[in-house]
Amino acid sequence: MINQESLKSQIIKALWELIIEGHIKPNEPLRETNLASLLNISRTPLREALQQLEWENIVVSEPRKGFRLAPLSEEDILEIYPLRAKLESFALELSGVPTKHIINELFQINSRILKAKSSKEIVELDEQWHLLLISNCQNKRLLKMVKTLHRQSQRYEYAYLAMNKTVEKSVIQHEKIIKYLQKNQLQKATEIFAKNNLVGVDSLINWLKQQENEH
Fold this sequence. Notes:
Distance between the termini: 47 Å
CATH superfamily of the largest domain: GntR ligand-binding domain-like
Order of helices and strands: HEHHEEHHHHHHH
Number of strands: 3
Radius of gyration: 18 Å
CATH architecture of the largest domain: Up-down Bundle
Strand order of the largest sheet: 1-3-2
Structural class: mainly alpha
Shape: globular
Strand content: under 5%
CATH class of the largest domain: Mainly Alpha
Helix content: over 70%
């Protein structure tokens, strides 16, 4: 039997798929009646899922107007990525040097990122790599914040990578991080990890400005 919390998670996942696949555009109103019909659910759990996404700054709401998908903005990028860099670096410090088994998995995932053929696959593998790297962190609140920031940043990454599959620089940095960890040089690995989270910021901002000029 599906409990209320898992139902909300499933609805959030379904909404997220609609967002990243471009079926819902930035600033587009989210018609609860239409979405409830599309997902074959009642409006009450749908509203709970939308409220969760609002808390994560994925959607916004206005009195008497309902929910809409939050716009993409330079301000958002400059808030999300530096914060993500700080929190993930701290999580790596708390995690310590990974086991050999995890390091081998990190190498394998990194190799798969280069071979990935879609932006969706690239973003999902990159998130998998990042979360595996800090998986030994025991601070659950910190990990929850990191995962929320991942979802916020992924809106930009899915859209950007759909047109610009430039992942080589990030993959090279991943390799450097792993090699420093193999040498037990956690501080060096942490420094590069912070830079890795910021590697695409300028490109994202330039891409966003280009999109705004075209519209």
